[in-house]
Amino acid sequence: MSYALGSRWTALAVLSATGLMTILDGSIVTVAMPAIQGDLGFSAAGLSWIVNAYLIPFGGLLLLAGRLGDLIGRRTMFLAGNAVFTAASLLAGAASDPGMLIAARFLQGVGSALASAVVLGILVTLFTDPVERGKAIAIFSFTGAAGASIGQVLGGLLTDALSWPWIFFINVPIGVVTIASALRVLPADRGIGLSGGADVAGAVLVTAGLMLGIYTVVQVEEHGWSSGHTLGLGAVSLVLLAAFVARQATAATPLMPLRILRSRNVAGANLAQMLALSGMFAFQVLVALYMQRVLGYGALETGLAMLPAALLIGSISLFASARLSARFGARAVLMTGLALLVTAMLLLTRVTPDAGYVTHLLPPMILIAGGGLVLPALAALGMSGARESDAGLASGLFNTTQQVGMAIGVAVLSTMAASRTGELLAAGAGEAAALTGGYRLAFAIAAGLLTAAFAVALLVLRRPAHEAPASDAPAVERPAGVTS
């Protein structure tokens, strides 16, 4: 598809605005939860559903939404998702009771899934030149880091200066402008038609399996890993997902053609991403909790304290990642970034109940900038082995493993931290020391997850075709949309 250079970069700005809004919504709500609880009367247990009601449909629907984008058109899916998300944000801000807010958050998750699932698919078809594609992915990754940092600070400012509904109302003008701009600048695509892959049974199996699996994971902290609730629902989720895989092997028009997983880079990058984000997202959540519960930081103070990490991640992804990937290859850049992240987590295993910010927290904040290398490299490698007709599916799969990785990371690491804290309290430790011991264990596990991601990058991933010498080209994979 021919598309003018200026128009492509304008389209990237529209896609990045949606990425910013999605990430912003995920981080902005965390600092406003106490105010929401006070106004709407959430119970302590029910409060977690402000996050969970968004996470479950977001992670569960991404794969289906990505494939539907291939079938009915990615632009259509992108517009529909933004419309649902914007309307749901308005509903969330107007919520007058817990049920209304939870329902609105669920719809926000649906809208985010519909729009986010096709963003990378649109991006890789717009930018077929490897250098331009690397720059575009770096810019898109930067908006994610910016959204995380802005959300933590903006959430505190809006809640303190106005009131918590404004953390949702702020999405409405962004959504309206994004939809209007998308109608003008995104290229129309017809899709391959519903007859090309409308696997209803497969859609039901994978969506139910993923949503039930994510629900089980986010409830682990309440029920425990060995409870009947966790084991029973986990087993049902695995059965549903196994049935989905079996269905895809035999269906005439599969929702997710298993051929996409034959690509080492697609399969390997998704596995590495799940492991890496399980550890990286734990940094964002657990360091924030450590600052507030152990060191006594306020919500706005915590957001400001974490700004160096977010700004470094964003700056490196925007200004350095694409250049380094062009020179050394995405795989080498990925492994370097993962090594920096492992080192950051190992440093965090040494925090104390009276840690100083400059001496104990700032060094890992600087090293966590490796995330600015990891995220764009994973995106480039994850899309490098997909056919152009499967770009929406590959994008949906990549976003699915991202959300599942974050959900699993938070559930596993927070549960392990809480368990260790309980053991230390029972042994007579003070509250601050016990909490610190729990977080230190979680950071050690995060370092292990990131090390596993490094091993996958080393043993599974291969250089994309455009990075290889000419003599190597037949042995490696060609990026979607790149022709010889």
UniProtKB/TrEMBL annotation:
**Compartment(s) of residence:** Cell membrane
Q: Which UniProt keywords apply?
A: Cell membrane, Membrane, Transmembrane, Transmembrane helix, Transport
A Pfam family: MFS_1
Recall the GO molecular function terms of this protein's record.
transmembrane transporter activity
Does the record carry Calcium as a key word? no
The cellular component terms of Gene Ontology attached to this UniProt record, alphabetical and capped at eight, are: plasma membrane
List residues traversing the bilayer. Answer: 12-36, 42-65, 77-96, 102-124, 136-158, 164-186, 198-218, 230-250, 271-291, 303-320, 332-349, 361-383, 404-421, 441-461
Q: Tell me how this protein sits in the membrane.
A: Multi-pass membrane protein
Q: Which residues form the Major facilitator superfamily (MFS) profile domain?
A: 11-465
Name by which UniProt lists this protein: MFS transporter
Q: What is the lineage of its organism?
A: Bacteria, Bacillati, Actinomycetota, Actinomycetes, Streptosporangiales
